[in-house]
Amino acid sequence: MHTAPITFFNTALPLILLAALAVIVPLLMVPRGTRKHWEVAVGIWASAGMVLLAGGAVFAAIYALGGVGVGAALRDAPLATGWFFLRLSGTAAVAWVPVLLLTWLGLAQVVEKRKGRDRVQEGRG
User: Fold this and answer.
1) pLDDT tens digits for 4-48?
2) Residue 120 CA, distance from chain mean position
3) Residue 110 lies in a domain
C-alpha cells in the first residue's frame, strides 16, 4: 500500500471526525458524577485507545472508498495492513490528542467543582 495525496476527504475530514470523537468518547467513558481523578484518567486513556482504533477504521474506509483493495490487503497481510492504518491514525493523533487533553482538563475541573461543592455542603450540614 502507498499513501494517497492529501485532500479534504482523506485528511481534513478524518481529523475533524477524530477530534469530535476525542470529545465524545471520554464523555461516554468517564462515569457521570465521579469525584475521582483516577476514574477520569482511566476513561481518558481508554478513550485514547478507542480513538486510535477508530482512526485506523476511518482511514481504512477512506482507502476502500478510494478504490484501494483494503479487504484483499487485510486477507493477504492482516498485520501489515492493520499496522499501516494504525500508523496513519497515530499520525493524525497530532490533531486529536490536544483535543483529548483539553477534554481531560475540562473533566478534571468538573471533578474539582463537585468536590468543592461537597465540601461546602459538609460545612453547612
Assistant:
1) 678 888 788 889 999 999 999 999 999 999 999 999 999 999 999
2) 35
3) yes
Three-class SS state of 77: coil
Number of domains the chain contains: 1
pLDDT digits (tens, 9 = 90+) for 78-115: 999 999 999 999 998 999 999 999 999 999 999 999 99
How far apart are alpha carbons 94 and 52 in whole angstroms? 11
Task: Kindly state whether residue 24 falls inside one of the protein's structural domains.
Answer: yes
Residue type for 30, please?
Answer: V
In a domain, 122, yes or no: no
In this structure, is residue 57 part of a structural domain? yes
**Which residue segment(s) compose the domain that 92 sits in?**
19-29+36-114
Q: How many residues does the chain have?
A: 125
pLDDT bracket for residue 122 (50, 70, 90): confident
Instruction: Return the half-sphere exposure (C-beta side, CA atoms, 13 A cut-off) of residue 16.
Output: 6
Check residue 107 and report its DSSP letter. H
